[in-house]
C-alpha cells in the first residue's frame, strides 16, 4: 500500500504523525513525509484514520 502526502496541501497540522508515527513524520519544513515506500495492509486503518483527521485532505492512499 502506497501512502502519499500532497506537499502543496499539507499545512503541518501533524494529526497524521500523532495517529500513525510509524507512517508519517514532519520534516524540517514542518511538512509530513511518509517513512516507507510501501506499507503492509495492516497499516491501512491507521492511515485511513489519518486521512479522516487531516484538515487539509493532504493524504492519499495510492494504488499499488
Ligand atoms: Fe500535513 Fe495533514 Fe499531516 S496537514 S502534517 S498531512 S495531518
Which characteristics define this entry?
single chain, 64 residues, alpha+beta, two-stranded antiparallel sheet, 23% helix, binds FE3-S4 cluster
Describe the 3D structure.
This protein has about 60 residues and is an alpha+beta fold. It is built from 2 helices and 4 strands; from the N terminus they run E-H-E-E-H-E. The chain has helices spanning about 15-20, 45-55; strands at about 1-5, 25, 30-35, 60. A two-stranded antiparallel sheet has the order 1-4. The N and C termini lie close together (about 5 Å). The site of FE3-S4 cluster has 14 residues, from helix 1.
Bulk shape: globular
Q: What series of H and E elements makes up the topology?
A: EHEEHE
Mean pLDDT: 96
How far the N terminus sits from the C terminus, by CA atoms, comes to 6 Å
The percent range for helix content is 10-25%
Radius of gyration: 10 Å
Query: Helix tally?
Result: 2
Q: Helix/strand/pairing class, anyone?
A: alpha+beta
Amino acid at each position: 500500500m502506497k501512502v502519499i502526502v500532497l506537499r502543496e496541501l499539507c499545512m503541518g497540522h501533524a494529526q497524521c504523525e500523532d495517529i500513525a508515527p510509524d507512517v508519517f513524520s514532519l520534516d524540517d519544513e514542518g511538512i509530513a513525509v511518509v517513512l516507507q515506500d510501501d506499507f503492509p495492509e495492516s497499516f491501512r486503518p491507521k492511515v485511513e484514520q489519518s486521512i479522516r483527521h487531516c484538515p487539509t485532505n493532504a493524504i492519499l492512499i495510492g494504488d499499488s
